[in-house]
Each structure stands twice: as structure tokens, then as C-alpha cells.
Write a structure and sequence with these properties.
Helix content: 55-70%
Structural class: mainly alpha
Radius of gyration: 28 Å
Strand content: under 5%
Order of helices and strands: HHHHHHHH
Number of helices: 8
Distance between the termini: 63 Å
Number of strands: 0
Largest sheet: none
Shape: elongated
Number of domains: 2
């Protein structure tokens, strides 16, 4: 990241020109045979019949921007791993996707939260929600609104009842 910043600072004018999507200097920067604006690039063989004054620099800026975005994502992943030490390898959850309704997941999260079975009850609802977001690759924006919806249903434990029935069916399969 330091090297990228150093490169961007070293080419500040053309970098700003590119980032601002300017066009007023295109004739000077990007037309062949404008040798007065030609940058001298160490170690690069420039063909005046093909290259322009800044095409190589712009190509590097585009590539370095993409590299910077990639590195930032990787740093964010690493930071998430250190902030959530109880989930050491988030990559293992990539294959899991919540396919039920969000309201069902809200019901599950609130039941675990309310029962106090996570960290001996020393767990905030938002922390538990973030964990489930990571595990099941789902975005849960309105957990508190979801809880209000659960309270308004005719059967507030609809999903838990479904889970109970499924477990009992599985248990009874062995006896039939």
C-alpha cells in the first residue's frame, strides 16, 4: 500500500486528471507524436507509432487502483478475523447461505439471545446478528424491526415450532 501511495503521489497530476475524468488535455496526453509531453519511462520500450505520452502511466494507475481495492478487501477480511476471534476461518462459511426467510433467522437469533446460551448470556443482539450474517452470508439490517414483526404474528414461534417438528420426525425415523 505504501508503494502504491508513493506511485500515486509521484504521478499526482495525471492521477488527478484520470480520477476527475477530465478530458481537456487528452490531445496532449493521448495523441501519438506529441513528443513534448512524452514521459520518459525507465525500462520501457516506447514505440512512437503506437504509444502516447501517458498511456503507460494511465494503464499503471488503473492496475494499481484495482490492486488497491483488492488489498483493501483483503485487509478488511483480516481485520474481521481479528475482531471476531471466535470465528477463526471465515472462509469456511463461504459455502453456507441462509435460504430461509429473514424473519425465521430473526426468530432463531432472538431465541438464542433470549435463552442466554451464548457466552453465558453475555452477548449483545447486534454481535449475535453479525455472527449469523457472517456464517450464513446474509445481510440483516433491521433485527429490531424483525423482532417487532415476530411479536405481531399469530404464532410468534412459527420457525421454532417447525424446527421442533423436523427434529422429532428425524428422531422417530429410527423407530419406524
Amino acid at each position: 500500500m505504501k508503494k502504491l501511495t508513493f506511485f500515486f503521489n509521484g504521478h499526482k497530476d495525471i492521477y488527478q486528471y484520470y480520477r476527475m475524468e477530465s478530458t481537456h488535455m487528452d490531445e496532449l496526453y493521448f495523441l501519438r507524436k506529441k513528443n513534448d509531453m512524452k514521459q520518459r519511462m525507465k525500462g520501457v520500450d516506447i514505440d512512437d507509432n503506437f504509444s502516447t505520452g501517458y498511456d503507460y502511466t494511465i494503464a499503471k494507475i488503473i492496475a494499481y487502483n484495482r490492486l488497491e481495492m483488492f488489498l483493501n478487501k483483503e485487509l478488511e477480511k483480516a481485520q474481521q478475523n481479528t475482531q471476531n476471534p471466535h470465528v477463526e476461518h471465515l472462509g469456511i462459511f463461504d459455502k453456507f447461505k441462509w435460504t430461509g426467510s429473514k424473519i425465521s433467522l430473526y426468530e432463531l437469533i432472538y431465541s438464542l439471545y433470549s435463552s442466554g446460551v451464548i457466552n453465558n448470556g453475555d452477548c449483545k443482539i447486534n454481535e449475535l446478528t453479525e455472527l449469523f450474517e457472517q456464517i450464513f452470508n446474509v445481510r440483516l439490517d433491521e433485527i429490531h424491526r424483525g423482532f417487532q414483526d415476530i411479536k405481531l404474528r399469530s404464532n410468534p414461534t412459527k420457525f421454532l415450532d417447525l424446527l421442533k417438528e423436523a427434529l422429532l420426525r428425524k428422531i422417530n425415523e429410527g423407530y419406524e
